[in-house]
Amino acid sequence: MAVIELDHVSKYFGKFAAVKDLSMNVEKGEFYGFIGPNGAGKSTTINMILHFIKNSEGRIRLFGENMPSANVDVKKRIGYVPSDVRFYPQLHVEDLIRYTLDFHRMHADRKELTYYCDLFDVDLRKKFGDLSLGNKKKVAVICAMIMRPDLLILDEPTNGLDPLMHARLFQLMKEKQQQGVTVFLSSHNLKEVQDYCSRVAFIKAGHLIGVEDLTTINKNVKIITLKGDRLPVEQMETIGAECIRRSDCEARFTYEKGLPELFRTLSELAPKLDDVTVDNRDLEEQFMSMYENQEATR
Prior knowledge:
Elements lengths: L1 E12 L2 E12 L3 E5 L6 H8 L7 E6 L2 E3 L3 H5 L2 E4 L11 H11 L6 H11 L12 H14 L4 E5 L7 H16 L3 E5 L3 H7 L2 E6 L2 E7 L8 E6 L5 H6 L3 E5 L3 E6 L3 H11 L5 E6 L2 H14 L2
Parallel strand pairs: 3-8, 3-9, 6-7, 7-8
Antiparallel strand pairs: 1-2, 1-4, 4-5, 9-10, 11-13, 11-14, 12-13
Helix pairs in contact: 3-5, 4-5
């Protein structure tokens, strides 16, 4: 079942289209990535999903329910971590969490709350306004988790987090996913998307330009980097490699055919080269390739 369904959704601010004709589905239990450059429309899309702003065109369904008619019932099932956390600065952390639970008509599970506070090293006695950026983000994460959501929407959740807290957050999200929670992650950190997401949507200038299955696509594509004074571009192209970047002393290729022929060719070329590397294509390479190809078609 699709937890998030966007059907030809657009958002206009005057004549400017922040999001245009966007369609995508996020299935139950998925860890779904949503990436794009600054100003691509990621936060606008999230705000429409949460009905913080109204879409200009198209249809949005959450848990099979039409939005905004099911707005109240649906919001009870969503935990949200915004990119910019702005809670009341004079309130203590414990009060913010208590108000979150009251809003969802839930009682505090002290054992669960203690677990989250220990996990993220959060002091309940501190005022929110006195916290650092990273600690504010951790409070937002706890508020999202403590109400036991069926859907987690996270917009740049790791901004301000140190590496230890970053690792703990993703460990927790993977545990929640294994329990059936759907995770929708918008992030500029391509490595964290690649490491944890099963599918990723690419958005640019408000347009969806692709959705990729990360469990299969990058394993089938190799990135070959050759370094040296005499770069055998033509020989690589004869076996089906595509040159994607070239300078005087370095050339990068994508390759999707058989490995025996690739390594036989590289073995023959090695004496002429200073260095050779072969890697699986990572998300950064996929991201750059997709966006450069889109620019070239304009």
